[in-house]
Amino acid sequence: MSAVNYKEHQFLVMWDCNGLEYLADITADQQRVTWARLQGQACPRHAYANPMHLKLRAQANPQRHYEIYTFDAVDGISEQDIRDMFENNPQMAADTIRGLGHCLHSDRARQEVAIR
After folding, report:
1. Burial of 20 by CB count in 10 Å (0-12 exposed, 13-18 middle, 19+ buried)?
2. d(CA 70, CA 101)
């Protein structure tokens, strides 16, 4: 069996009850920070999206039921492809990312089923 040779991209995504709010390809930013640290240099300020800023926004607005995830995608999947996925089928996009990604924050609204 041959090894699959592809480059993965990592994305940071945030959505709420109104739809996609934030999406960024953070692969290049992480590589820039890693190289700076390996060279003994200070980490570039604002070099990458800070998930803590997104989490703070989510905590300040719990009524919007924010979800924040990171996930990997193979080379060829662009930021625009993910935006299109949220535009065309937001529920499928959210379910796919929930299944593949790493949850950083979730205030997901759940409907409780009443048993009578």
Report:
1. middle
2. 6
3, part of any domain: no
* Any domain includes 112: no
Domain with 85, as residue range(s), is 8-106
Which tokens sit at 79? Answer: 């930021």
* Number of domains comprising the chain: 1
Are 97 and 13 contacting, i.e. CB atoms less than 8 angstroms apart? Answer: yes
Q: In the predicted model, is pLDDT for residue 64 greater than 60? A: yes
Neighbours of 65 (CB within 10 A): 16
Q: Mean pLDDT in the chain?
A: 83
